[in-house]
Amino acid sequence: MAEKLLVQPDPEFIKDVMASGAHDLKKCFQCATCSTVCTLSDGGFAFPRKQMLEVQWGLKDKLMEDPGPWLCFYCGECSKNCPRKANPGETMMALRRYLTAEYDWTGLSRLMYRSAFWEVGILALVSAIIVALFTLPQNFGFGLLSRSGPEALSSVMLSKFAPVGLVDLGDRVLLVLLSFFLLTNAARMFYRLTRGQGIPAHLYLKYLPHLILQAATQKRWKECKESEATRNWVRHLLLVTGYVTMFTLVVVFLPWFQVDGSSVHWTSYLGYYATAVLVGATVWMLVDRIRRHGEMYEYSHLSDWLFPILLFLTAATGIGLHVLRVNDFAMATYVMYTVHMAIAVPMLAVEVPFGKWAHLLYRPLAIYVAAVRREAAECSSREVAQLGRVVA
User: Fold this and answer.
1) Contact at 8 Å (CB) between 178 and 347?
2) Are 321 and 293 members of one domain?
3) pLDDT in tens, 266-282
4) Residue 294 confidence (pLDDT) above 70
5) DSSP annotation string for 3-37
6) Is the residue at 229 inside a domain?
7) Residue range 199-218: average pLDDT?
8) Secondary structure (3-state) at 332
9) Is the dihedral of CA 181, 183, 186, 188 positive or negative?
10) In the prediction, which pLDDT does 143 show?
11) What Cα–Cα distance (Å) separates residue 345 from each residue in 20, 244, 340, 387?
């Protein structure tokens, strides 16, 4: 009787990955140049050659158990040195899109990554809901027509146009929903990466600080020897600090951050920092992408553009809102506030749990699991060696 296959090849798998952006995948003939030139690849978790092979052979189950795609920071050295121009770096990016869709139990990520219509359409739908909340009369207590009154047209009264209590409640509800979707998707990822690995529980605890460190700093990026790796890491770190600062101000300190008139609170200075970083980093990213500066910008998926564009527009409208508010332009302030929210909320509600922002959790989690699995394997090897010595 033929031995049963441990992994069932999936003939549709390669089509799905190519649809996620790996257009040159079939050019690869497994010369291993890509893994040789990559300074982050190692014997424990080699990439990108291993992942190229998994896809070409239709080994979906193997890929789902492989943290390798998330250990790559797309420096582009592999694509630059590939003799067949198979673009292994872009394939790794495509695999991250594919895996993001596989982790997402709602199916929204798959729709967004496979169709520009769906990605833009979902963002536009959420945006339209936000605009309706702030403009239609008698709408959950929001809106200039329902709550502001004539006096709010002569002087900025954001507390009447958008009551802080209701906006704060909305922020917290959104936070709970985002956390639920993102964490349940991450739990599915964690299960697939650790299933059947026989990892002792104490190792998960031992490497928990490693997970926190990687999530906060993405410092593994610095280990890449590509010439612009440190530059890209610094930009990414600044971008994350700006985003986290702004997110904290909106979710935790909104009663102090959203104020009327020309008053400036201490939270305003944190807002200035977050805004400056977001604008600077996103413009920097967009210029590099437009100029195709470096291998990682040679190819662009729609999600690669939406990520920095939405961040930039959120920061830019925030600047406009602040300028109008401190100069007491009432109606213009309310309009800009609505525009700002119509950009920021869809970005948070759609891109964080279902789009590219989810990488901020998936990548550190994969690095953490890889470290745990590596030590578990080393412990197992030592035990086998010790048993061999005892038997001998």
Assistant:
1) no
2) yes
3) 788 888 999 999 999 99
4) yes
5) PPPSS---TTHHHHHHHTT-TTGGG-----HHHHH
6) yes
7) 91
8) helix
9) negative
10) 52
11) 26, 15, 8, 58
List the one residue out of 73, 72, 92 whose CA is nearest residue 24: 92
Q: Is the peptide bond before 48 cis (omega within 30 degrees of 0)?
A: yes
Q: What is the pLDDT of residue 257?
A: 74
Q: Which pLDDT value is given to residue 208?
A: 94
Structure confidence by residue, pLDDT tens digits, 296-318: 888 888 989 998 999 999 999 99
Question: Mean pLDDT over residues 220-226, rounded?
Answer: 83
Do 259 and 284 share a domain, yes or no? yes
Q: Kindly list the distances between the CA atom of residue 301 and the CA atoms of 21, 28, 218, in Å, as whole numbers in the listed order.
A: 7, 21, 23
Task: Tell me the residue type at 17.
Answer: V
CB 305 within 8 A of CB 294: no
Please give the Cα distance from 97 to 69 (Å, whole number).
Answer: 10
Q: How many Cα atoms sit within 13 Å of 222 on the Cβ side?
A: 7
Question: Does residue 77 sit in the same domain as residue 135?
Answer: no
pLDDT of residue 90: 93
d(CA 343, CA 289): 22
Q: Domain ends where: 74, 103, 132? A: 103
pLDDT attached to residue 149: 55
Domain hosting 37: range is: 13-103
Residues 68 and 55 sit within 8 Å (Cβ to Cβ): no
Looking up residue 41, the CATH number of its domain turns out to be 1.10.1060.10
CA angle 201, 385, 191 (to 5 degrees): 30
Cβ neighbour number for residue 211 with a 10 Å cutoff: 17
Same domain flag for 94 and 112: no
pLDDT per position as a tens digit, 328-354: 898 898 899 999 999 999 998 999 899
pLDDT above 90 for 120: yes
Total tally of structural domains belonging to the chain: 2
Residues across the chain: 392
